[in-house]
Each structure stands twice: as C-alpha cells, then as structure tokens.
Amino acid sequence: MPTLRDASTVDAWVAEDATFADAARALAASGIPAVAVLAGGSRVVGLFTETNLIAGLVPAYVRELRHTAFAEDDLEALARRGRAAAGEPVTRHLSRPIVLEIDTSATHAAERFLHGDCGAAAVVERGRFVGMLSRVELARLLLARAGIG
C-alpha cells in the first residue's frame, strides 16, 4: 500500500507572522492551491489557499453575494481592498488545514481530499512540516500504482 512517503511534496509555506502579501507571493510561486502557515518553522497552524487569496482581494460584500452579474466592477474599491489586504497578517486569512502524517495511506489521503474543499494538504512527520501535497500529485501516485501513469 503506498503512503505519502511515495509522493512528491512541495516546500511551500510562510511563517505565521507573514503578511497577506507574503503569503500571496508564496502561493503564486508554489504552483499548488495552498501553502502552509507555520509556527516556529515547523508546526502547521493553517493553510493560505487560493480561495483565501481571492476573498482577501475583494470587498467583504462580494463574499456574501451569490450572484454578481448585476454589479459593475468598482476598480477603485478593488484596488483599495488589495492595498489594505497586503499588509494584513496572514493569520486573518487562514483556512483550517488538512494535515496528513507522512505514513498516511494514499487511500486515506484521497478520502480526506474528497471530503475537503482544499486542493492541497500539509504533510507532517511527527508533527513537523514536511511539505505540501496537491490533489494532482496524489492522483499521480495513484495512477502510477495502478499502472496507468
């Protein structure tokens, strides 16, 4: 049975004292849908996701609406919100992390992804951050084990 030791992870994280802008840059550079936010350089306290990024860049009312086709873009409001968000602590913009121990089976990791809405999970070994695992990387591992990849 494959475990997450057999998967490639990405070293994508920011410290818990990082700003929104720091996390946004790390997320953009990572190539995956989330980066870990770490305390003490190793303990996962949350994830900064693509959804957190977008939510932080738009005025709060946009998050409450279910349909915005009627609304005109207010470019100045978007710019103001983006400038304000840039200096905010990343801890104001976190999602609950999916955290998987490195010896977790690929089947259990798949189940966690299927029941979560984030496209990446933090992988730890005895509580210390190892890297981020994307859904795509887990799929590669499963495809390879099935002889398809």
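That was protein one. Protein two is written in the same sequence-then-structure order:
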Amino acid sequence: MAPGRAAPSIPVVARAPYDDLDWIARIRESDHAAFEALVRHYSDRLCAFVYNNTRDAEATKELVQDLFLWIWRHRHEWDVRGGLTTYLYRSARNRAVSYLRHERLGQRWHEEMARTGGHEFERADPIEPGDDLSATELSAAIARAVGSLPTRCREVFTLNREHNLTYAEIAEALGISVKTVEVHMGRALAALRLQLTGWL
C-alpha cells in the first residue's frame, strides 16, 4: 500500500465519558470539553468504519473531520434521533456513500472524455483530496454543470451515467427514439466539456 494510504487501525472501545443525552446537551451549550471528548471517543472508530467503504485513508480522515465540523457549526440546533453512536455511524456512512457516488461520477466523466477524444481535458496526475482541485470540488462542479443542462439532456445524461440505463432503456423510459437519446447525450457531453474546461 502506498505511503500515507495505510488503513486506520480499529481502536479499543473505551467507556463513554457521558451518557448520550447529557453529551448532546453539553455540546448544544457550546461545551468545548464535551465536543473534544466526542471527537476523541469516536474519531478513530468512525475512520475505521468509513475506510471500509472508501479504501482511502486521506479521504476517510477528511470525511470524518467534516462530520465533526458540521456538528460543531450546527450544535445549537443539532437534532439526534435515536442513540448517539447510531447517529454518528449513520452520518459517517452517508458521507462515505455520497463521496463514492461523486467519485464514480468523476471517473465516468474521465472515461467518457477518453472515449470521445477529450484527452486534452485529462489531468496528468490523479486527483487527490489534498490537491487544490479536490475530488469533492470537481464532483460539485460536475453536479452544477449537469444541473444546468436542458431538462431532456439532463434526464438522458442522468439515466445513463447515474442509473446505468442503456440508450434503448432510456428511449423506452422517456418515450423517444434511440437516435434522439444519442443526440441528447452528445449535446450533454458537449455542454459539460465547455463548462468544465477550467476544471479538467
């Protein structure tokens, strides 16, 4: 495994310093010590859990840090349904799933560029979460670009790239011909290339 990519070790679970309700209440009241205790108690455990999905130690660390940062920023209205541990693991998993979905979309974009001759838009090196242009930022740019497409182009692109439908399946779902699907896909790819030139 490459340096800096080692999997987080699974920590020994220690006794929680507070019960759930008290912990949540303290953090809502801006108790820094309680928040720091939350990070210490759960950080390594959540990293080990998230890494099983991402297989990327750096991305895992960022996702877990982002979760804790979100909690602190929204502490006054922080709403925990059910147990605190369950909430944290569910939230961490949701972030991992979102990250992987965006990563797959970015990978499909690069594959499409290679297939259609858009090599000039490819980066020489893989995108790393620590780069100025992070994978998350690229994914957000792609999402914005897709969202700006005309409705039918966006429907065709999304059904193909995100839902993995074939052109024939898209044609049947939308009540159009396969040729029309091809036209809309071509327009969508051309528009995305134009909008994302500064990113890729």
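The CA atoms of residues 116 and 189 lie 9 Å apart. Keep this in mind for the problem set.
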